[in-house]
Amino acid sequence: MASVGLTERETRVLEAVIQMYVETAEPAGSQTVAQRFPLGVSPATIRSTMGELEEKGYLYHPHTSAGRIPTDRAYRWYVDNHMRLSLPDPEHQRVLEAELTPSRSAIEEILRSAAQVLGLLTQELGVAIAPVLDAVVLERLELVPVSSERLLLVFHLRSGAVRTIFVQVAGCIEPEVVQRVSQTLNERLAGLTLLQIRSTVVERLRDAERMPKERQLLNVFIEEGDEIFGLPAGPDSVVLGSTQSIAGQPEFTTGGRIRDLLDLTDRRDLLGQALSARRDRGLTITIGGENPDPRLTGFTVVTSCYRTADLSGVIGVIGPTRMPYDKIIGLVDHTSRMMEGLME
User: Fold this and answer.
1) H or E stretch including 44?
2) pLDDT per residue over 288-335, tens digit each?
3) Is 101 exposed, middle or buried (0-12, 13-18, 19+ CB in 10 A)?
4) Helix, strand, coil percentages for the chain (3-state, nearest 5)
5) Burial of residue 21 (number of CB atoms within 10 Å: 0-12, 13-18, 19+)
């Protein structure tokens, strides 16, 4: 059946060109299309049809090549009209199940594993954004000395997740002081959401009667409460997989394109903004120029939000616009569902 605005022949030729280019990364010529696909028409007819598709904005000539390449519009047409979303193949499902297992690991560790394995399976750049934790209830805190001026603060959250951050302190603090302050923090803060803690931490800790060194440590939580009990935000919330797989794609064989990729991985602020905007949008695919930020116009971003009762975040991949959309979208969607199971 022909798509809106395209004839039956144009639909079949466009689908063939997209499939060829995704598989080979080489511009598709009419002769090659005629040989590989049983379209029932001559190379001359295919060439004429490709010219019509170029006029309609679905194909373009790269440089002086006789072949043609799909445009962003062509990929959007394919995703919206011809793609068949399916589960990942059994082998990929086994890999995901082996790498993403239920645990009480820190959220960031779960996300890092998910981004890493998703990038490996798709040969793109796996990306994730940590969940907003404002509505999550704190069950208890642990304070663990790691050096004379550094403490590890472990958040045990009612969602079952664990979050860790480091807290800087001035001077050496004895373990017994750390233990007493940890007890005070749990007495005053456990059972509250992180948003409630940030809003009331000053009042809840200000009148705690303690010795000078305990008061010194409690003051750290009073003065830096917004940061300590804040949700992961901005650059710190973005988790990236390895760039090794995506760097091997044909699009990044030239110096200019690989620099674009490296610049992108350095811009955690840009990625944080782009991914945060997708937090409540389900499965989302933005292709090339559809991305609001011009620095992402050379890429496709495929993401899906994961959600439990208290947590929501984003998992997905970034890659060149030439990608096997059905396979990648299926993997991203399946991984997001697994993430929901891990965080229940």
Assistant:
1) helix 43-55
2) 999 988 888 989 999 999 887 667 789 999 999 999 999 999 999 999
3) exposed
4) 50, 20, 30
5) buried
With beta carbons less than 8 A apart as the criterion, state whether 233 and 121 touch.
no
Sign of CA dihedral 326, 331, 332, 334: positive
Question: pTM, whole model, 2 decimals?
Answer: 0.77
Token representation of residue 133: 């934790």
Which residues, other chains included, contact 52 with Cβ-Cβ below 8 Å and sequence gap of 6+?
10
Distance CA 114, CA 342 (A): 11
Phi/psi for 305 (5° steps) reads: -85, 145
Beta strand 59-60 with 312-320 is unpaired
d(CA 65, CA 67): 5
DSSP string, 319-338: EES-S-HHHHHHHHHHHHHH
Domains and CATH numbers, the chain: 8-81 (1.10.10.10), 90-130+234-342 (3.30.450.40), 138-228 (3.30.390.60)
Token pair 């793609």 is at which residue?
83
**Separation in Å, CA 267 to CA 205, 234, 272:** 37, 10, 9
